[in-house]
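Before any further analysis, backbone shapes were mapped to integers, which produced the following:

***
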Amino acid sequence: LAGENALERYDSSAYGQVLSTSGLSAFTYLRINKRLLEGENWRQFVDFVLSMSDGGKQRLSESDSYGTDLYVGHIKGIKETEVIIEIALV
């Protein structure tokens, strides 16, 4: 399972709700902004991250954790194809 925070909350209760979600293997933290970096908010966020790391939660498989060498280079080819089609129709 994966999750994300939808509301701008920096309190331990909100973080606790995330931690209580069983089987969570990934979490996207939205709302990273100046308020998050303020004193107590930052301390609670650090505690939350450490708890996520130490909580024995299921981790994503290696194939889901890393990027690939995949390169998509067909965009230029699409433009050329469109030009060829237009020429063929004229």
Observations:
- The mean pLDDT is 69.
- Residues 83 and 89 are 10 Å apart (CA to CA).
